[in-house]
Amino acid sequence: MNDEIMLLNTINHLYDDISDLIKQKRSDVKNAVNNAMVSLYWRIGERLTKELTGTNKPEYGKRVVFEICKRLSAEYGTGFDKAAVSRMINFYQEFPDYEKVVTLSQQLTWS
Q1: I want to staple 80 with a disulfide (CB 3.0 to 4.6 A). Which of 21, 25, 49, 72 is the partner?
Q2: Which residue, 89, 55, 95, is CA-closest to 69?
């Protein structure tokens, strides 16, 4: 019986160690994906802002954003509607220093 208890303790300990590894790596992956998405959204905002800056034609800007949103949504699904893309533009405009955005995003916890 003593051998059985030792075996169960070993199995429990091994299971806990492996479970902790899985949880940690899942968290690492989640953080990496979140950081990549922050970077992507910032870059989209940057690209659109630079395209639209200096144009004195509001209709041009509205049309560009509308068409980009329509095409992105068709190809990549939800998350690229006008409201989301407007937030990306605002994000870039509020935080124009990419290095700071990257540094801060790596320090955030998303859960």
Answers
A1: 72
A2: 89
